[in-house]
Amino acid sequence: MSVVNQEVEKLINIGFTYHQDGCLDEAENAYQEVLTIDGKNAEVFNLLGVLKLQQNDVISAINWIEKAVEIKPDVYFYETLFQAYVRAGLFKQIVAREKEVLEKFPDNFSLLFNIALANKKTKNIRAAIKFYDKALKINPGSYLAWFNLSHLYSIEGETENAVSALKICKKIRPNDIDTDYFLSLALMRTKNYDKGLKLFETRLCRETATALQNKTYPNKATKETLWKGENIKNKTIYVYYEAGFGDVIMFSRYLPLLANRCGKLLFLPQKQLVPLFRDNPLGIDVVIDKYIPECDMNFDVHAPLLSLPYLLGLKGDKVFAYPEGYIRPHKELAEEFKKKYFNNDKIKVGIKWQGNTYYDQDRVIPTKFFKPLMAVENTQYYSFQTFEGSEDAKELDGIIDVGKDLIDFGQTAAALSNLDIVICNDTSLAHLAGAMGIPCWVILPYEVNWRWHTDLSVCDWYNSVKLFRQHSIGNWQSVFDDILEEMKP
To answer: Model pTM?
Structure first.
């Protein structure tokens, strides 16, 4: 070994010892000194990249590791580089290296897994599925690969494949709650509610709702008093909301069935839904609109709303109770809205383009796509967009803004009752229109929520609802072309 090589090896060892001891500045100095002697030392470039990752300087890390890969295409350097790309969110850079990785390291699980992940993140769904398949041939016991693959199958509407992948996940991690929850969604999407509803009890919003009630009524809303489906003919049950407005409207269809099974039914909806349920009791004895002290709150058992179909033991098509419309508007209020906004002979179309963007950006529809619909002869459009996104109504010439007058769902139901049709994104307005039996066209993104099932030619939950789905991810134009075709006389 030459004197130069001996000096390089000595400095690398010094740097590596500092590195292992957590003395990162000293380690970096030693590595940099190596590069003054050997400016193309791939190992040191990679070590500097690893060091920068430890310091959370991801961009510098990538620069160092890319130099290492350029000098020496070592599998370990590629693995480190891909880890850095993932941390930086630079998924396109991983996709760009697909070909070279397949040529050099076709059997490396880590690299194939990250290529699959990168394709997933960049919405290249079919490519992502292909690379997860390749990775799983190498390591068929990878929980994360099967779990991610199940999600991709679900996006593509290959729900049976999603179920199969999640069942494998369950074998790998038998007690994993996330697996149970997502398997429940996949099963329910295939209309297998007998098994799906049981696993749906693992959902996070259920735990949050029951924990909140336990905190509010610690002596009454306990684990022991959770209703488990037993006979409560002469007992009082307290049911409370969970999840969003649309979920509560959808699952409120089960309240009349529950009312026939209990002595007294107390129901706590979100504040904005209180007027709606006062106008539509659905067997509810008391609609709770404010905090009731525990000393005045009397019930025998309690349950979160979304657990009702499971607790009621509903099987098969009985899960879709009351698809004909179970919500009615307040008559006098509906007449007031008619006089103010809807007293014309045109086809009255209510629209909404976004819901809660905190949870889901994919369901937000740019208002520009509604413009061609508004050109259809003899139509008058009404904005039912409230709060966030309502300012976008100004982009639609000739639209009438009803949303500014809507402060609760009782008012929304009254206004909706004057429409001929609703056209909206997948949001609470769609559930309200469906629950009222008002014709409603729901515009879905490419990745469809479990409740709309695999066959989108029908809507099992609401007879008045028709579903329109994107032809490809992010392609709203294709949906609106379909809707415009449907609107033609």
So the answer is: 0.91
Residue 412, both tokens: 């929304």
- Residue 73, C-beta contacts closer than 8 angstroms, at least 6 positions apart: 100, 104
The answer to whether 165 touches 150, Cβ cutoff 8 Å, is yes
Q: What is the dihedral of CA 227, 232, 236, 241, to 10 degrees?
A: 40
Position 302: which residue type?
Answer: H
| pLDDT score at 76 | 93
Say how far apart CA 191 and CA 187 lie, in whole Å. Answer: 6
**Do residues 311 and 303 make contact, with C-beta atoms less than 8 angstroms apart?**
yes
Per-block average pLDDT, block size 10, for the chain (489 residues)? Answer: 64 78 84 82 89 92 94 94 95 95 95 97 96 97 97 95 97 95 96 96 94 96 96 97 95 97 97 96 95 95 98 94 90 96 95 78 89 93 90 90 94 97 96 97 95 94 96 94 89
Give dist(CA 267, CA 289) in Å, integer.
9
CA dist 345 and 343 (Å) reads 7
Cβ(79)–Cβ(69) under 8 Å? no
3 state SS of 304:
strand
Question: How many other β-carbons are positioned within 10 Å of the β-carbon of residue 278?
Answer: 14
Burial of 258 (0-12, 13-18, 19+ CB in 10 A): buried
pLDDT of residue 1: 45
Whether the CB-CB separation of 91 and 85 falls below 8 Å is answered with: yes
Whose structure tokens read 């609107």?
487
Q: What secondary structure does DSSP assign to 214-240, as a single string?
A: HHHSTTTS-STTB--S--EEEEEEEEE
What does 352-388 look like in DSSP terms, one character per residue?
E----TTT-STT---GGGGHHHHTSTTEEEEE---ST
pLDDT value for 2: 54
Contact indicator for 459, 467 with CB cutoff of 8 Å: yes
For the chain, helix, strand, coil in percent to 5 are: 55, 10, 35
CA 223 vs CA 213, 262, 352: distances in Å: 10, 19, 40
What's the pLDDT score for residue 392?
Answer: 86
Rounded-to-integer distance, Cα 15 and Cα 21, Å: 10
| Amino acid letter, 172 | I
**Structure confidence by residue, pLDDT tens digits, 349-359:** 999 998 776 66
